[in-house]
Amino acid sequence: MQSDWSIDVPNLGEVIFRQELLKSLAKFRQLDACDKESGGVLIGKYLNSGGAMQIDDFTPPQPTDKQSRCGFYRSATHNRIVTQAWRESEGHATYVGLWHTHPESNPNYSLLDRRDWEKALKESRYEGQHLFFIIVGQQSLRCWVGVNSKKETKISLIGERHFGK
Questions:
Q1: At the fourth CATH level, which superfamily is domain 5-162?
Q2: What pLDDT sits at residue 83?
Q3: pLDDT value of residue 122
Q4: For residue 42, which of 129, 145, 134 has the smallest C-alpha distance?
Q5: Burial class of residue 66 (count of CB atoms within 10 Å of its CB; 0-12, 13-18, 19+)
Q6: Does 160 qualify as catalytic in the annotation?
Q7: Looking at 20, 37, 88, 123, which residue is catalytic?
Q8: What is the dihedral of CA 114, 106, 158, 126, to 10 degrees?
Q9: φ, ψ for residue 150 (rounded to 5)?
Q10: N or C: more exposed end of the chain, with fewer CB within 10 A?
Q11: How far apart are CA 119 and CA 151, in angstroms?
Q12: How far is the first Cα of the chain from the last one, in angstroms, to the nearest whole number?
């Protein structure tokens, strides 16, 4: 991964995933048979009133999380870390989504993942109507955007980024 990753998201604008974030997430890939799923929260900043966003930070797995080869439970510790980042940034750094790993080359979400994302869209407190969901696989990571409106909850794949050799 050589540079930032920019995606033009419908009804939001350009979303920039910083290179350092992508490199850090890649370190959690489940490359060995004994590697457990990891996950956490994505932290970002709105760049202007037009809705452009930069996602540049995340919460790493916490000791209070529950991890297995094909499962991950995110503990409340992640919420406290995001709240602290928000306070320290004077309200600029904010919760913008969730990430986790899968032990597959090119990840797809499971029914359990989809339910977790829908719950986050409906019940979490966040700015705007969008949340981002990243799954880190062994060869690539994929990103979905979720939109919560009064009519429906919609989740769409917006991009895939392959890891370098």
A1: Cytidine Deaminase, domain 2 (3.40.140.10)
A2: 93
A3: 92
A4: 134
A5: exposed
A6: no
A7: 37
A8: 40
A9: -65, -30
A10: C
A11: 15
A12: 9
pLDDT the model gives residue 88: 95
So where are the chain's domains?
Answer: 5-162
d(CA 139, CA 141): 7
20-54 CB burial, b ≥16 within 10 A, e <16? ebbeebbebbbeeeeebbbbbbbbbbbeeeebbbb
pLDDT at site 51: 56
User: Is the full-model pTM beyond 0.85?
Assistant: yes
Q: What pLDDT is recorded for position 52?
A: 82
Q: How far apart are CA 51 and CA 140, in angstroms?
A: 27
- pLDDT mean for each 10 residues of the chain (165 residues): 84 91 96 95 84 90 93 92 94 94 96 94 89 97 92 91 83
